[in-house]
User: Fold these one by one.
Assistant:
Number 1:
Amino acid sequence: MSTYITLKKIQIQNANCVAGLTYGFPAVTHFLGYIHALSRKLQQSHQLNLGGCAIICHQHQVHAYQPQGRGDYIFAQTRNPSALRGSKYLGKSSPIVEEGKMHLTVSLVIECKGLITGGEAGINLLLQHLLQLCLTQKLAGGVINTINQVVIESASTDEEEDNLLRKIRRRLLPGFLLLDRSNYLQKHFLKLQATNPEAEMLEAWLDFSALKFQAEAILKKDEGLDEKSKANWKYVPKPESGYLVPITTGFRAISDVYEAGGVTNTRDTQVPFCFVEAAYGIGEWQSPHRLQSIQQALWHYQYKEGWYLCTTNNTTEEQETESKEDNFDFL
């Protein structure tokens, strides 16, 4: 039996919109971290475990503005917190810590593992408990103002699974579903290496994020090309089709794992510690009506040999072996 929890239209205020080198939407790890914290609480109260999570964005507003006469956008900043009594900044303007914030409305479809007891009454009690827990937790550093609806649905046969898929797709419209397309990045990187052995993964990643235009010379018959030749500027398509964007997909270990308490000034001295750096990939925003299976949209944690990644790709053993053999410095 498959059970899914849908948190419909979560309105989040002042969420973090900067993730490593990318900005405009919170990192996938924010959402999986939110689900993980929710799962730990449900384990204690209802013996339920939460698995993968699908991310759907309905609305977003980045706190940025464009100064007059300039092409670049700048994050709108506030002085938080205000100077309190006893503070050294009392009577003065407190300093600005540069941050990127945004308001957004998202829906989450969460895989639920375990038996919900109590029949219809037990489901209603779980819905009330879920709503209370979800509102008290922060998501991507932002405060959750409202949740439109919390729904728990199950399917035990293929026919029920298809009906459930149709219900969830209609519920998520209008919106855009975030999917992992890091396989496009690896494919394009191999193409670049075929023509340029010195090409790096960073160049392949930028090809998906940059808007490129190429000049096409306008030459008359028997006219040579020079600096004064006229040209038409044409858009250079991205390596793959789709609404593709660069995203932060996880972390990569850059040090050994140290024993608990072995590194000073860590947040938690009770667990082992490891230094990491951000790992990047490619994501695609896709309309939910194109979804063929709920499992295709669920983001999961994936850990292997120092890589701590989030992905929607269901890798086989053969694909995992190939990825271990390809020691990419930038993913």
Number 2:
Amino acid sequence: MFGTANSFASFLSNRSVWLIGALLCLRVIFLLHGDGLINGDGALYVKAAQEILLTGHLPSARFQSLGFAVVLTPIIALTGENAIRFNYDPTMPYLGDRIANAVHAAQVAMDLVIVLILIREAAKLLAGPTQKPIVVTGALAFLALQPFTAAMTTHVYPDAMCMFFFFVGGYLASQSLSGSRGAWGLAVGSAMLGVAGLIRFEMLPVCGALLLIIYLVLVRQRGARACLGAVALSVALFLTAPTAMTIFQYQSTGEIGYVRTQIAQNSDTLRKGYNTWLRTWIILVQGEAVVFSDALHDDPSWVGFDMNAYPRRAFKSDEQRGEIAGLLDSWRQNGYTKEIDTGFIQIAGANQREYPITSFVLVPIGRSLHYWINLEGARAIQVTLRIEPPWSRVATALVFPFRLLFVGLAAVGFFVVGIERRSRLLRWGDELDLARICSLMVILRTGELAVLGLFMVTGLMETRYVIVALPAMLVLATVGLRRIAGADEPLASNVASNIVQTIP
């Protein structure tokens, strides 16, 4: 693990390495100090996992994929019979109960693995004779302390685990491109990407596209015949988890496929026209989308019935504003009828025909940017410390500048990978291979959410949906820092090389 005795002695004598190690310990202690939380859809996942453990069968398919419930079963199985039989109420929050804390501990362990990989790769990228030790130490300290990858560790939601399997799976699969871990890295990484697609079913095309690009690079590097066996094994392992899930669903309920969209949980089924109109103008995912597309809106006091609640860009003209006011007033008095749905569809269609650039380009781009530049990030701090407004807003305000910082650096990293090193886009094999994989992770996930936002309300829901690609963005931010700091060649510096030698 540590290489030679000399390198181990060098490791022990390096104060910066001890600092990073101490910060990592503090990170784990702080995160574990808080309690796990089960609320909302989290209770539905837990109840499904309990049913699997008690009956051996999967519940009927629903709008949310139950793949996450399957992944939860081994963790919940260790919590004891009483916890497995407890009847969770989806309308109630459960803070610090046995299952919540067990899942929380597992997710903190996953977060630590992600952060260790980030530190290892950042140390390699930032090594160089032009790099000052304080820059390297500061960057690694930031990675050790940043709360962003830990944002959902306290929640029994699929995002934290999906992030782990997506990032670590992509990381291992990318190692096959440099030959350092060869076929086994591709195999294990493919299996993990399959599990990521199981946890969040819409991630399947993202993970599949990522693997396909890796296959193309491998074939270009080594030839089709030399890669055939490794690629075939990779495909089989990637499909194992979703295929097993499909078989399990059919065996349990007779259903083929484990997601159902045409049910009441999907608001597009109930209010297709209204949601289609929303998608032509909503940009602020965490704010506007939650306010205007959440819940069933049977309450006459719902804020969406107030025309003054909508931003100016929601209406293309005064005439359209009047039409929408009439539809909303009728909705409030008579409920959401077929005629109202048709009215919203006609308005949305007119927006798309008359303002195609706004509807299909500018608005999706704005939403994509908001997924990354938003106030999300202090959630783990807020839940762990159990702070409420106004202190929760203070925590958010303190964390937000650091989010802007790493997103800005990541933009520089994109420039380095895609513009400065564009001649390497089809000829991999240098120190930026992982950064290229990470750029694909960010582009594929963000692009998928942009496309979903054009056709489904799913693309308008919560900024936490992009967290799966957040570690990849941090790798790109490291590349951006390296570019700004002027370390063009990855030669060994004292701080960075010692850390790299100590992490397997």
Number 3:
Amino acid sequence: MSKKAKLVAAYLKGRPIWCSWQVTPRCDGPCAFCDHRSEAGLAQPELESCRKIVRELSAQGTLLVSLSGGEPFLRSDLPELVSLVAEAHFPLLTTDGCLVTRSRARAVWEAGLEAASVRLDHADPELQDRAVGVPGAHARALAGLAALAAERTRPSQQVNVKARLTGADVSGLAGLLKLAADHGATVTVEPAFLLTRSAPASTGLAERLRLLKSEHPNLRAGSYFLSRLDESLAAGVGSCRAGQAFFNVDHHGQVSKCVEFRGPEDRVGRLEEEGISKVMGRLKVVHAANECRSCWYASRGELEGLYTLRGLLGALPGLLRA
């Protein structure tokens, strides 16, 4: 049975189909908006430990596994890790792009990487460097994006730019969309976490993005995500499927319902010690009590869209295609 068929089977059985995994706590830049710099001295999991985690994930079924950190390219063994994940799953990756060279990009593509996202909020170098708080961050991210785009080994491998929406002004997005298109990349946009509530200027943001999408087809904003975007900024989107459709694994192998809930009180078990069956049972309990409305990430919107008839029918042809 192909991995795509196994992914569909996991969905039909009501199992999670997405796992975010922080494969390192380390990061290469003290970005002003991120707290990972406080974890820079922590040890990252050894490859053998990662192998055990992958084995447990595989017992659950086939997943979309999003590798992040910290900065995953700080792992010298990243291609080996991607290869481990690719045996039974679909490995994805998010990076700031600053450590990506053409040789390193080719290595992860050859290892079986399906998609890579580069974090970049602005086409304007000055605005990006100021937002990150690191001079030259834009140039380094752009070089990483170019390397990932150039070194793809098969047409189905996707490169994406991931941008944060910090307000209702989307005038700068056209430039970012053009920059991404020049590298054969898509763009996803999402409100920053935590969501800012009841911002009057946010009204109509979804419609502005729809108009942008009509002019820039590489804007990857699904209909379900857009249909609830304004709602998310006003009051948050309820009925979150964290713990049901997706879950998080941190660099210790500890499982929680999502990437934003990784504290000691949020963890439901350690995969290497307890196994996937016990952990999944506890995740069901956590999901049943979940009332969080604090995010509307693009990945959440894409996943939850699959639980609507329109979203499922739209995704099935791609999932089932050989």
